[in-house]
Structures are given as C-alpha cells and as structure tokens.
Amino acid sequence: QVQLVESGGGSVQAGGSLRLSCAASGYTYRHYCMGWFRQAPGKEREGVAAVVDDGRTSYADSVKGRFTISKDNANNTLYLQMNNLKPQDSAMYYCAVENLWSGGSCALYMRSPKYFDHWGQGTQVTVSS
What we know:
By secondary structure, the chain is mostly beta strands. Helices cover about 5% and strands about 50% of the residues.
C-alpha cells in the first residue's frame, strides 16, 4: 500500500522560504514520477514540480527559478524547497507518485493530476503580503 505523508507547510511572509517534505513508502515502481501539486480554494489542482527516478526534473513556469524539487532515495523522501514565496503560492500542497510507463513523460504527468493515483493528505502553505 502506497503511503505519502507531507509536512513542512506553514505561514510565511512574501519573500520567505519553506521546505516541504513527503515521506513515501509502499511503492515498488522501478520507474516512477513523483510530483508536487497545489490547490487553492476555488481553483483546480495544478502541478508545481516533478522528478523522475533518474533525477530529471520539471517545473511549472510560475515557480521556475524559485522552487527546487529533490529526492532522498536512501530515506524515500521527496522535498520541495520554496524560495521567494509570493501570496499567489498560497495553497494546499500535495505530493503524488505514479508508475512511469515506457514512453511516458513525467513532464506530461505534471500537467494533470489525473495521471496520479497515489496522493498524500496535503500540507497548507500560506504566504502573506
């Protein structure tokens, strides 16, 4: 059973930083895509960043240069370092993992939550101006 547990959210002022963590367990995919999504009230869930098992990363244009996704394979933990936070970054942040099928694109998966079956419960990020 796949389990994903996010942590690290909180309230910060604009320009501040946060580091989100996602402790993952139970998945046995040889090739996988792990991603961070966010959802603000009244808005659709959107992809923020994703990483393939081989380390390749993808980012939404809105966070490029400010957010960094990484993973610690030894501890099965996914991270999202968020710098220079803006009020529009406020949302519930979720991590997700899915098998990356042959020919599949993690960058494509990041574009829609429909590609992921396994989700964490989320961690709230609030950025004040």
